[in-house]
Structure formats: C-alpha cells, structure tokens
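WARN no homologs supplied; continuing
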Amino acid sequence: MGGGYTTLNNIAADPGPVAVRPRNVEFNCSGAPLQWIPGHPVSSHFVSAFNLILPECEEWFVRVFSEALGHVDDEILRETMRGFIGQEAQHSRVHGNVLDTFFAENGVDTTEFTGQMRWVFRRVLRIPSRLSARRRRKHLISQLWLIAAIEHFTAIFGDFLLNNSWEEYGAHPGLVDIYRWHGAEEVEHRCVAHDVATYFGDGPLRRFWAMLAAFPLIISVVIRGVHLINTGENSGAPKSEIAMWRALHADAELGLAPDFGRVLRSVLTFVGPGYNPQDVGSTAQAVAYLSRMHVTRVAS
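OK structure emitted
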C-alpha cells in the first residue's frame, strides 16, 4: 500500500472461520459537503461516484445469488451465500440513502445516471427468461464469474477503506463511517463470490472473460460518475481529465485514494494461476473494526 495509509488494526488476532451475516446499521451523512475530504475534491468525487453505481449493482448481485442458491447442494456454502445476499442488500439500501440525500443537498441531479444504471443491471445483465435450462445455467455461471471479478476489486477497495488517511485530512465523519463499514464487510466476505463461481466450474478462460468485462465496466462508469459529480455546486475539482488523474495520483501518495498501480497489477493476479482472495486484505482487521463499530454504536 501507499506510504500515506494508516492502519486501523493490522495486528488483530486471527478470528478463524467467520460467519458472514448482515448487520443492522444506520448512518447519517446529512450536511456533508460535496468536497467531503477538504482540499481534495477529486478523491472526494472518486469515492462518492460509487454511490451512483452500488444500489443497482448490489441488487443485481442479490438477484443472481438468489437464483444460484437453487443449484448449490453444499449447505455450508448455501449459508454463506445467504449471509452475502443479506450484506449486499444492506449495502444497496445504505448507498441508496446516500444517493437520495448527499447528492440532492449538493445540487447534483443523478436522475439520468441512475436510470442508465437501472438499464445496465436490470436489462442488459438480466438472464433471458426464454432459455433452456442448460443455457440459463450457462448464463448464470457467466454472471457469477463477472460478480467474482467485481468482488475482487471491491476487496482491494475495501482494504484501502480500512487503511487510508482520511481522518488526518478532516474527512466528514458520517461518510467515513459508511465507507469503512462497507469496506470492512467487503474484506470479510471477499472469498464468497469466488467460492461460488468455482463451485459451478473454474477455468482460465472464464476468469479472463470475466475480468475483461469487469475492469472496463468499473473504470468507465466511475469516471462518468466523477464527471457528473463535478457539475455540482462547489465541486472544486479541475475539469481537465489529465489534471484530475494527476490529482488522484497525488492523493494516492497521501493515502486518500487507492494505489492504482496495485489495482492494475491485481488484474493479472485474478487471471493468473494460484489466485486466492484471502491474499487481499485481512479478515482479522475487518472483523475487529466491525466489532469495535458495533460496541461504539451500542455505547453511544
């Protein structure tokens, strides 16, 4: 990781097997400015862009995994899938709330963008209903591998969310809480999508095609999201694409944005032999943060 990252709890004891389960959470981001990391608008907008995508994307995860459940006989894997479905549904709800409040308060009209996300995740990625059982299963497996590739990136991003320097730069605490909670759960369940995809059948071509679809999809949609947010009141970010990438690179050196070199290298890791999602992040750190977050909320 970049030198600017701070570690919340890298020395936590190994918790052993962890039951993936949804948590009842409520957050308040009311009043958060568009530039919620003061003086660092590009990193602020880069992270905020995920709120435009996640509600529909994670509902799609839920639909695909719910269908896949009917094809899984391993009861332990089925239970883990149910926990994953619950967490993803909760993520969709929380980021939907951010979408409804944060952007509206800051003068960003998300109507067209979110409509396009609905079209992508409900129409383009919908498994056609009039298919034979064999072809429907083939479509399902392709979607499970696409989700596994996307979850590879969310695990890397989750690791960053647990180990960044946002507080040092005065980031809005309500948004920090949301992103840290989500990042910790992404690290906690980082193996689930990969385990499910491999249950249905592994292979280098499946990995390659999944990554070939996932990587440009994520990058292009996030970039479009950043440009949309940049139209908001008090955006503060440069309009030039080159200037924005330079600012993002500089912020990564400070621990305010992900290390994009690591992200690019991870593409090859996913399609290479011996890939293991456990190599990304720390379950101990994620579980320790989630436990501490729960204790803090109960005490407050």
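The chain has eleven helices and no strands.
OK
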